[in-house]
Amino acid sequence: MSIKAYKYRFYPTAEQENLLRRTLGCARLVYNKALSARTEAWYRDQKRVSYKDTSKMLTEWKKEAELSFLKAVSSVALQQGLRHLQGAFTNFFAGRAKYPNFKKKRNGGSAEFTKAAFRYVDGQVYLAKCAEPLPIRWSRLLPANVEPSTITVKLSPAGRWTVSLLVDVDIEPLPPVEKQIGIDLGISALLTLSDGEKVANPKGFKAKFRKLRKAQKALSRRVKGSNNRHKARLQVARVHAEIADTRKDMLHKLTTRLVQENQLIAVEDLAVKNMVKNHCLAQAISDASWGELVRQLEYKCDWYGRTLVKIDRWFPSSKRCSSCGHTVNKLPLNIRSWDCPECGVQHDRDINAAINILAAGRAVEVCGASVRPERA
């Protein structure tokens, strides 16, 4: 069994939108109050506040007259917000994430509902305290004989409502194939494959840059707090949503094709967070979205019975000759092709790197060999 999320757009009625906006607002308020309480307790008394403590705080907050409106929304969404805050602190103390931030209204928001707070009847979703089903646009049907375990309602900064249904499904592995591929990630060419194919980088941000610049200039001229500024902010958010949608659509189609056609996929394990600290390349690297591409390859390979091998980031894939194995000392980024001083073979920098990545991936898969270069 695999956990899979199905995401859909929906267009709530005026009554439903009013209830959902109040639910998102209450969930955001509870999250921020709990984060503030935990932060204050640590700086004041060096005390860690647990999830159980914040749950008790929530019970007391509901008894206060000025916070009595918390009773008008589903308590499950509020409790799930506290659980998410606990997860954020767990990741922070484990060194996997930064300190949690306060949530802002302009970023939209989300609310999570477990089985106690919704009903799934005859293909319709009924949320707690809502008499009518959500008017979901079913772009694809859920698998037969499955019911959602969790439902998440989200409002994007662009004003779009989406609902995500989490279900347990059986995913059949794809039939085995013999083809194996090595992938070199880049900017001018998003992917360079070991068979010589190069996938162009669509550069979605650059394509929408002028439109985004125009919308942001209009936003900067509006008076803060005015209705026109709110409209201009929505326009900026819509442009950002267009960029993100284009990028996600391209990545999903590309990764699905790679997983369908190849049994083994070898890719570099790049430190993207460190690479974007280079201000000259940060925008191009972020637009390429290498991290999301590798993430999609990971879970799709797991779903469909493929093998994904990550090569050590220090492996000299570009500087090593794929014919004789000779490694040059230096190879600046501006050199896109080079001749091996040992065997004289001319290499395209990216294709040579992809071939070496595939060879290293095969070695790791077969014998678990380390491909990290030895250092004195």
In short:
Residues 290-357 form the Cas12f1-like TNB domain. Keywords: DNA recombination, DNA-binding, Metal-binding, Transposition, Zinc. This protein is of the alpha+beta class and 376 residues long.
* Portion in strands: 15-25%
Q: DSSP helix count?
A: 10
User: In which order are the strands of the major sheet placed?
Assistant: 9-8-7-10-11
On the 0 to 100 scale, the average pLDDT is 91
Query: Could you estimate the helical fraction of the residues in percent?
Result: 40-55%
Main beta sheet? 5 strands, mixed
Terminal Cα span: 47 Å
Please give the radius of gyration in angstroms. 25 Å
- Number of domain modules: 2
Gross morphology is globular
Structure, explained:
Helices cover 43% and strands 18% of the residues. It has 376 residues and is an alpha+beta fold. The protein has two domains: 2-169, no CATH class; 180-367, no CATH class. The strands form four sheets. The protein has a five-stranded mixed sheet. The protein has a four-stranded antiparallel sheet with strand order 1-6-5-2. Helix 5 runs antiparallel to helix 6 (227-261). The longest helix has 35 residues, at 227-261. The radius of gyration is 25 Å and the shape is globular. The two termini are 47 Å apart. The mean pLDDT is 91.
Core attributes:
376 residues; alpha+beta; 2 domains; five-stranded mixed beta sheet; four-stranded antiparallel beta sheet; 13 strands; 18% strand
